[in-house]
Write a structure and sequence with these properties.
seven-stranded parallel β-sheet; 14 helices; alpha/beta; Rossmann fold; globular; 17% strand; 2 domains
């Protein structure tokens, strides 16, 4: 779809108010970088930062960074409003439900079109009172005035449409998966062992405690296995205590590689994701990018959209530890066969390359700008 006018489409992506440059932050950065570099004749791309991120990529970026610190809801309202007063954007892309509602109120009278970008699981994100209020406002006031809803997973968007009786356009915009360097001579699994790996925030949602329990059960049956948990987060002390209590201190490690997990992935055999819920799963995609087979709980929503072929990996029922243990054991027994599918996994996941994903995002932005004129 061609732009309605000859001028560039002005688009603002909002980063969440976090301190670590990780999931949503990496997605926005990758998409906006590619939009600016490849589609710069069509899009004028700004990114709003309301917080400072540790491990942020080196500056400058190819897009324009707009800084407006805001740590409270009132601070966010002021930050959002000051930015959109200064520049009339054709579309503002806001991640998640709560910030989208806050942004909608902040731009009252300014009529900035909004694309709400779902990254997580709306069914699991309204646990506290303030979130419930914002979800209520979305359902009964804000949603019908949103130009479009972007989502990271087809299943996620279908569930959102059903749960919220959403009548606005919905568009699946896949998260981009970065390309890693080829493995070096030392980037290979330890011979004679099967190393399981998990990469993600140490958090109840990500379910590393489930994985540790399953690993402990399997370790009682066979000692030729190891587990590497790569991440950061508030649950690290609890995980450390669990590992020591189960006597796994010599075979389970907690590691932190904030910028690039590729060496850990290349040095492992099987990726295991035990999330209680997801919106998508960049971690699963990055494991496939490195050629690893994946075992994942069949949680809402992303894993079942990604693991669509047995050569990619296996889904196990959520909450079924026995099934998880048996799947891990089965991969140990078939690890040589599984390695033969490594190139297939790398090729399959290329559908989510930065180039391919950004093309879809670019088309979605054009569609959203057209839809905004009908809101």
């Amino acid at each position: 779809m061609a732009p309605a006018t000859d001028r560039k489409i002005k688009v603002l992506y909002c980063q969440p108010g976090t301190t670590v440059f990780a999931g949503i932050e990496r997605v926005n950065d990758a998409i906006c970088t590619e939009l600016a570099e490849t589609y710069g004749d069509t899009f004028d791309v700004d990114v709003l930062l309301v917080s400072e991120h540790r491990n942020h990529p080196p500056l400058p970026r190819t897009y324009t960074i707009v800084r407006r610190p805001g740590s409270t809801r009132l601070g966010l309202i002021r930050a959002f409003r000051s930015v959109v007063r200064e520049k009339h954007y054709d579309l503002v892309v806001v991640p998640q439900i709560e910030p989208a509602v806050i942004f909608w109120f902040s731009r009252l009278g300014l009529k900035q079109p909004i694309a709400m970008h779902l990254h997580g699981n709306p069914r699991r994100e309204s646990g506290h009172l303030k979130a419930k209020i914002l979800f209520f406002l979305l359902r009964h006031l804000v949603l019908r005035r949103v130009a479009v809803v972007f989502g990271t997973s087809p299943r996620q968007l279908r569930a959102f449409t059903e749960d919220f009786n959403c009548r606005r356009p919905t568009v699946w915009v896949p998260n981009p998966v970065r390309t890693f360097e080829a493995p070096g001579p030392d980037d290979k699994p330890t011979a004679g062992l099967v190393t399981f790996v998990n990469v993600g925030r140490y958090d109840y949602q990500k379910g590393q405690d489930i994985l540790v329990d399953a690993f402990a059960a399997l370790y009682k049956r066979r000692q030729d296995i190891r587990l590497r948990l790569v991440g950061h987060g508030a649950d690290k002390p609890a995980l450390s205590e669990q590992i020591q209590r189960l006597g796994l201190g010599d075979v389970v490690t907690l590691e932190y590689h904030p910028d690039n997990p590729q060496q850990v992935l290349y040095a492992s055999d099987v990726f295991v994701a035990t999330s209680r819920w997801e919106g998508w799963s960049l971690a699963i995609c990055e494991a496939l990018r490195c050629g690893l087979p994946v075992i994942s709980t069949d949680c809402e929503f992303g894993p079942s959209d990604i693991l669509i072929d047995r050569r990619l990996g296996q889904l196990v029922p959520s909450g079924d530890e026995a099934a998880l243990v048996e799947a891990m054991n089965d991969y140990c027994d078939r690890i040589d066969e599984e390695r033969t599918f490594a190139d297939y996994r790398r090729q399959n996941i290329d559908r989510y390359s930065v180039e391919n994903s950004t093309k879809i995002h670019a088309d979605a932005i054009r569609q959203a700008v057209e839809a905004s004129r009908r809101v």
